[in-house]
Amino acid sequence: MRSRIIFLVLVLLLPTGLFATDYYVSADGNDNNDGLSEATPWISLSKVSEAAANDKNGGFIQAGDQILFRSGDTFEGQLVINRSGTADHPIVISNYGDGELPILSGSGNIPTGDFIEAVKLVNTSHIIIDGVWIKNDRKNLGDITWGTNSAYGIKVIANKWGGISKDLTFRNLKVSDVFGYDMMDWEGKFTLDYYNAKGIFFDSDKDDDTTSPVTEVRFEDVLVEDCYFYNLGSTAISARNLNPSNNPNSEEGRNRNFVIRNNTFEQLGGDGVVFASVCNGLVENNEFIDLGWGDHTSSIDRYYGRGEGCWIWDSHNIIVQYNKQYRARGFGDTYGAAGHIDFYCKHSIFQYNYSEDTEGGFVEILGDCDNSVFRYNVSVNDGHRANGHHRYSIWLSGWVGKDITPVPSRDNYIYNNTVYLDAAKCKPDISIFAEDTYIYNNVFYAINGAQIGSGGVDVNMQNGGELKVSNNLFHGNIAAAFTNLDDNKVSGDPLFVNPVSANGDVDNFDIQSGSAAIDKGFSFKEPEFPMAGQGVFKDITLIPIEDAFGNSIDMENLIPNIGASNAHNSGDQVGINDAVRVSDMFSIYPNPVQDELRVSFNKFNQEFNYNIYNIQGQMIQSAETVSIADELRINLPGTAKNGIYFIRIEQGGYYQVERFVLYR
Length: 664
Prior knowledge:
By secondary structure, the chain is mainly beta.
């Protein structure tokens, strides 16, 4: 008896998830089965929902368990998950067998009618959904008499009964064919309801202040990667938090830590990604194709008809980078560089993006934002909305809501972008209502009937703010009212490698030797990103170290090129003519390093000096006039934290910079 008690105690002390169970679901199954093998699967989404209910409703799925749907099968109904895994043992929803991904559809041959949500996650944490196909084209209203024009592939809910939902992963999904029951084009009924045909919707309620302490409600640590979103009535991925907006504390009242990467978005009535009240968001390496889809001459089609790659509102610390956007359309907004910055945003960077044939234009920054940056982007034939409505290469507006006095944005940086126009329909203008704004080192190129600024160049600086425009390259038909803002303007041909303006790629807009853009840029201290090297931004440097084409840059210390490409740059230092940057002076190892960094020199017995900087640009160690035979050993400070560092060594009129990672 005693041995049995000891055994039971040991079992109870073992980590949750050690005895994880796989549950199988197939179209040939039976809900009276145990679901524990491919031979005895369940059949319905309702059975899975019963197993995934919370404790008080009889659910029994445990941390580490997997729910596996048979590939090639279709399951109609609604899947509801109201349980959580753990960080080490998440609950996984996936597939088994060969063939096409299993389809989970909220619509179809359902006697009670189609569901608003095909999949609903309620107050869940540590969940992975991997390798399923989600659909929800609502055509049978049935018993549901509310939200008729709303439809969601996956709706994720956080409320006061669950507090913080975290560690949610969505991977290798197809999400397609999501439409509301009576959804129609904006021209028929323009209300917010018509945004509601969404692929994945993260819907966080506001904090509950009736408890002590206050119950915080939000999403944390969300990853959406390697998914395909296709044929949706509106937006693919949307996240919101219902706490009051414009909180100056970045981490209060906002969802946190969203990463959206390596996804394809195609034929959407709305946007690819919408961040409303998100703190720390990274949107990278996505492809956005045909957003704002729909028949804009019809009032009865089912697509919203207004979209772009990513737009952000009331969000802090957001980077949108390395995305491609093709043929975005819309009756408002719809801007290049893969999206725009709406009002109440702080520390927002759109960089290394390629956009082509975007109806609205290139840059849009709305009101009351701080530190908004567009850099190293390539914009091709963006800005051709009919009748000139909100059609700008640069549009800085103070708009913060209807019937509210405009508020200018502060510290706007637009630099080292390439803006290329070669279609007569492209006639974007310039409009700036803002405080301190800096427009440096951009290529503005307009040929073959395209024009920039012909319809107006409107500059209205607020509250004593300054507008600095310098070292931009203007080529073609560009209004003098714009070029005359630049006291150091450059003219000439940038000599793009292959300026193809249809289904192109960023590589087409690299530059050739002899380009008028080479070594003609303005050197300045770039804006810093305060979260660099931390959390979801662990691979982001404080300031850029390369351009859109992978060429190295050092904007503050070396004279840059104009435009998104730093190719063929001489590497001359600012104000120094006798020091030349090289790449073959020394090598470092190991990398990553724990305590001792070793430097192996190619030229021996020469004096040198070195400086080591952290990713924030702060010098942590240095030495001057050092002489060594062939190898230098540097003991790094014990106070140095794990992260990215740079070592700069100068020797005999030459210098070299290398990056290394400290990991103890």
